[in-house]
Amino acid sequence: MEQFFLTLPFLFASFLTLSLFFFFYLHSSKYSLPNLPPGKIGLPFIGETLHFFSTGRKGHPEKFIFDRITKYSSHVFKTNLLGEPIAVFCGAASHKFLFSNENKNVISWWPDSVYKIFPSSFQTSSKDEAKKMRFKILPQFLKPEALQRYISIMDHMAQRHFTDDWENKIEILVFSLTKKYTFLLACRLFLSIDDPYHVARLLGPFHCVASGIISMPIDLPGTKFNRAIKAANFIRTEVIKIIRQRKFDLVEGKASPTQDILSHMLLTSDENGEFMNEMDIADKIIGLLVGGHDTASATCTFIVKFLAELPHVYHKVFEEQMEITKSKCEGELLNWDDIQKMKYSWNVACEVMRLAPPIQGAFREAISDFIFNGFSIPKGWKIYWSANSTHRNPENFIQPEKFEPSRFEGEGPAPFTFVPFGGGPRMCPGREYARLEILVFIHNLVKRFKWEKVVPHEKIIIDFPMPVPEKGLPVRLCPHKAWI
């Protein structure tokens, strides 16, 4: 027995060596195909993932991309991220190719971490479910005509948010409050939940899910991935309770079939008359809530940052919003016509999204062998496209580091150079919803306050896939009456 235990370290070392051998054998075969893009595999298992994430955590997510474009003199290069062979596509031509070839050469793909956090995704046809969500369910609520009726609700909730959480405060942390604002809206409009206690109970777990969705799928205590799985399980249990209550309310006539996305999901069948099960609906609702508040909260946060740094931009936004305020009767809420007048404010928001894209990029999978830019992309390879590859490229934007809202006047940027919402058939279906909640936020913010940053040179870092302020963006508030 003693001899057996003495041989255990040897057996473990042998197993590890064998595993590494097979890893290198399998991966070298993937990377030894002819005419692949230039690039490196990186370390065993993790590839270049740590470097990819670390450049974002240091506040320079574009560095990983531009360093390799320069090194390989190519806008397409290969790497290994999250344990997968990946071709990184950069630039407007790459964006155009990927967005134009959806379901032809490429389909949407997400890392294993996503499917382990949302396990029902494995049990359904992602292509069919995506079509149902995008073309049958979401347009009912997220197209401009449908969203018009939500503007007054957004304005009312924004007023309540600023009254409860901003007014009579000397100093606040902007990032945590914008997350609260956008999450309150998403819960109200997607699930008809307006109970602040219920919403607050879900907000923390949602932050864990959002932070761990794109991460190394290492399920050990203390890792982002482990926390995300636990948080998703908690949220799923809560959402299933809401689903079951809504089913009862629909039968009893206490809920409307058209009141929100949840009701519509429960009552919409496929061509065979089959309905989504509770687990599937819960995962899709969680995904919508993450997407519906996290990206917009990042943009709202950085609007506050840049307006604090650029008084002349703040002044023009303030003037535009006050013109709208003066045209309203006391107590009158914002409407669709008011939103259309906020042209300069939206240009500011677009310039914020150019410099701090709410989504850094996204993944695809090659469904056939194809050639792009002279390089072979094998079937099964994963592809990553990067927003920063065009947003911060001087070929697309003169002085790309300069904040200049006038870039979006007239016809605006060239096609496929400004891609905060993606493009093609998979362009974010919530982009108009995001526009409304961001503009309503700006309106209620600037008509109440001026502010100054507490940390003068706070970095924008990437908690992948989102940009976040390193310190949460603390600001010192001053109501307008104090400036007069």
Automatic annotation (TrEMBL):
Superkingdom of source: Eukaryota
UniProt protein name: Uncharacterized protein
Species assigned in the record: Pistacia integerrima
Lineage, uppermost ranks: Eukaryota, Viridiplantae, Streptophyta, Embryophyta, Tracheophyta
